Amino acid sequence: MKTVLVTGGCGFIGSNFVRLICADPSWRVVNLDALTYAGNLENTANLPADQLRFVHGDICDRGLVEKILKEERPWAIVNFAAESHVDRSILDASPFLQTNIGGVQSLLEAARNHPVERFLHISTDEVYGDKEGKRASTEDFPLCPSSPYAATKAAADLLCFSYRRTYGLPIIVTRSSNNYGPYQFPEKLIPLLIRNGLNHLDFPIYGDGKQIRDWLYVEDNCRGILSVLEKGQMGSIYNIGAGEERTNLDVVEAICVAIADRLGIDVAALKKRIRYVTDRPGHDRRYAIDTSKVRAETGWQPSMDFAVGLKQTVDWYLDHTDWIAHVTSGEYRKYYDSVYSQA
Ligand code: NAD
Ligand code: TYD
Questions:
Q1: Ligand 2 pocket by C-beta < 6 Å: which residues?
Q2: What is the CATH number of the domain that holds 87?
Q3: Which ligand is nearest to the CA of 86?
């Protein structure tokens, strides 16, 4: 069995990745997760015990990371652990600096002392900044982050490559576009809209709603990450995206249609709940990446059409209302009020 240390494996993309690799009995995962508001042990429930060890802890705790590396001698580290939500980084950037930069440095230092074959760091297309009216970014484009979140992710990428050059660490970085699908915390656009739809709440749309994101189904991203882990070149960056560019208004309207179809209710009544609210400060109008490199070098390509993926995602949330209730029972209320009551 090949062991991988996955960090942040109880979050949205991490848990989808853990499920993907545990479907192959030749892999074993050690999942290090601090179980912040975004991490949930239920997200990896029912996986075979001999393939998954969970460690509750912080990536900033270098002693703990070194202990795990010494005990488990994993083949690779895949780092998903992060503070991941732009609006939270606008409210308070401190936890973002701590985990997204300090935590990455802790993992890099630990990997210096206990070498692994691959160190795959999960980054984002947001490091390239706003692409309105511009060409899609290839991996060599300059970094121009807009939000505190994106700035910490860009810093971490640079730190990773400094450890590659200085200490020869086997760094690979993926930068994906916006993900959607099962197990996404309902603070991000798509699950927030679906949750609000089910709870008879309004659909908050920032500014004019014409901002564009390239939506990638989470399982496509996870297959892409696995391809890069197995076939990617050391010291390389890989953009991963589906090329499914949609405005936020397109997205909210498609969600209204999917909910109306599934529940047999009037779509016009749902659409009346769309509310234009105060725009996010520094809001990027468009993200766009060129994904030729990952396609050419690993053979990966996305398989999910956005309309189909969105419908499946709406169905998943409607079938998992207990999960939504559970993950939104804690500090979610306070967060929601702090962002949306003023907007
Ligand atoms: P998420 O917020 O759903 O999950 C983050 C996970 O990391 C949680 O389980 C949390 O408990 C854990 N975590 C946070 N701080 C930690 C710490 N200090 N130590 C250990 N665990 C910690 O995030 P996500 O959406 O799954 O994103 C995963 C990665 O992918 C992040 O690095 C993010 O920047 C990147 N990314 C996300 C998207 C997206 O659309 N969600 C797009 C591109 C890149
Ligand atoms: P989000 O899911 O937060 O991802 P990101 O900001 O990392 O791209 O937001 C996606 C888009 O949706 C972004 O343009 C902001 C917008 N948005 C809203 O209009 N309303 C909302 O309530 C949220 C959370 C996001």
A1: 86, 178, 188-189, 192, 204-206, 211, 213, 248, 280
A2: 3.40.50.720
A3: 2
pLDDT tens-digit map of 291-326: 999 999 999 999 999 999 999 999 999 999 999 999
- Closest ligand relative to 225 C-alpha: 1
Looking at the CA of 68, which ligand is closest?
A: 1
Which amino acid is residue 151, in one-letter code? A
Distance 322 CA to ligand 2 centre (A): 24
Domain presence at residue 162: yes
Closest CA to ligand 2's atom 6: 86
CA dihedral of residues 55, 8, 34, 31 (deg, nearest 10) = 0
Euclidean distance between CA atoms 263 and 290, whole angstroms: 38
Domain total of the chain: 1
96 touches ligand 1 (CB under 6 Å): no
Residue minimizing CA distance to atom 7 of ligand 2: 86
What distance in angstroms lies between residue 117's CA and the mean position of ligand 2's atoms?
A: 36
pLDDT on residue 323: 95
Task: Please state whether beta strands 179-180 and 171-176 pair in parallel, antiparallel, or not at all (unpaired).
Answer: unpaired
The single-letter code of the amino acid at 182 is: P
How crowded is residue 307: how many other Cβ atoms within 10 Å of its Cβ?
A: 12
Residue-wise pLDDT tens digits, 253-267: 999 999 999 999 999
| Beta carbons of 77 and 120 less than 8 angstroms apart | yes
Question: Using CA positions, which residue lies closest to atom 36 of ligand 1?
Answer: 124
Residue numbers of the domain that contains 289:
2-181+218-241+283-303
- How many CB atoms are located within 10 Å of the residue 53 CB? 16
Ranges of the chain whose pLDDT falls below 50: none
| Closest-lying ligand 1 atom to the alpha carbon of residue 122 | 32
- Spatial CB neighbours of 244, under 8 Å, sequence gap ≥ 6: 214, 215, 216, 302, 305, 306
Flag whether 293 is in a domain: yes
